[in-house]
Design a protein that fits this description.
This protein has 312 residues and is mostly helical. The chain has two domains: 67 residues, no CATH class; 222 residues, no CATH class. A two-stranded antiparallel sheet has the order 1-2. The chain is globular and about 70 Å long. Pfam families: Sulfate_transp (PF00916). InterPro entries: SLC26A/SulP_dom, SLC26A/SulP_fam. It is found in: Membrane.
Length: 312
């Protein structure tokens, strides 16, 4: 049975009293559950109980072989859907989808490798492994995983900063006169390996609930900012010259200023090809694809990126 008129000391006089229309103070009485919900109050015993429940949930797979098998099937979804896979009706569609995604990943992975500061061939290597592992651990039939522009830019910035720090160290006096020169591939590989360990630990401890705290405003702002960073990072290649890279606060404005000062040095042939590529992709995806889908009985996936690379 709930106890009425439960009073708390911290700030209750201001929270539970208000003025009426006659400028007289009137007292508001709250149940304990109402007070806890309104002021988000949780006692120490409640927090301790929740932590205990989470610990028991994490240890529940080890309680019995059946629970361990269920946890393994949830953690590796391929054990669930592969025995139920319809080979007669789905094989051809999956092959077509795989070929389409593979064709799309070719120019995409090359561009992301350039953003990361590595050779373009490394982008082709890294585009294979995410898709392969997602086959075992993924839960969506329609997702296409792979390189990400923002992650590539962040990896490029981190690699550039580490390489610069090492070059500064090489100019100083080293006691044993031995220093190993790092490459962008080594730095990005170490960074990717460390990130994978963190993501694997997050998956084991079921930390996906943290994404519930990401509001729509935060996500949309992040996507817009990421698009701006990606465009600015590729502007020098768009004009056909190489602008210096910057790190730290305000680097984006420094890079824009550097690109503007280097415009007289741009390569007009590269600039014309870039303009043609942008127009070709825009017309294809905005007009040609809707036209084909409207007049054909089935949707036709057109790899405009591959056509563009072949033309250029």
């Amino acid at each position: 049975m709930e106890v009425k008129n439960v009073w708390y000391n911290h700030g209750l006089n201001q929270a539970l009293m208000r003025k009426s229309n006659t400028d007289k103070l009137s007292t508001i009485y709250l149940f304990k559950a109402e007070y806890d919900e309104k002021f988000r109050y949780r006692s120490k015993s409640t927090l301790k109980q929740q932590l205990k429940q989470k610990a028991c949930r994490l240890m529940s797979p080890c309680s019995s072989p059946m629970n361990l098998w269920r946890w393994l099937m949830d953690f590796v979804p391929v054990l669930q859907w592969l025995p139920k896979y319809n080979w007669k009706t789905d094989t051809l569609h999956d092959i077509i989808g795989g070929l389409t995604i593979g064709v799309m990943h070719i120019p995409q992975s090359i561009a992301y490798a350039i953003l990361a500061g590595t050779d373009p061939i490394n982008g082709l290597y890294t585009s294979l492994f995410p898709v392969f592992f997602y086959m075992f651990f993924g839960t969506s039939k329609h997702a296409s995983v792979g390189s990400f522009a923002v992650a590539s830019i962040m990896a490029g910035f981190a690699s550039n900063e580490i390489i610069q720090q090492q070059s500064e160290m090489s100019n100083t006096i080293i006691m044993n006169n031995t220093i190993t020169s790092l490459t962008y591939v080594e730095v990005t590989t170490t960074l990717a390996f460390t990130t994978g360990i963190v993501e694997l630990a997050a998956g084991i401890f079921q930390l996906e609930f943290l994404t519930a705290y990401f509001s729509d405003t935060l996500v949309s702002g992040f996507i817009t900012a990421a698009a701006v960073h990606v465009v600015i990072a590729q502007l020098d290649g768009f004009f056909g010259f190489t602008a210096p890279k910057f790190n730290g606060i305000g680097y984006l404005f420094k890079r824009i200023y550097s690109i503007l000062t280097h415009i007289p040095q741009m390569n007009f042939y590269t600039f014309k090809m870039s303009i043609f590529g942008v127009i070709f992709l825009y017309l294809g995806k905005s007009f040609m694809t809707p036209f084909l889908n409207k007049h054909l009985p089935f949707n036709v996936p057109v790899p405009y990126e591959l056509f563009l690379v072949s033309l250029l």
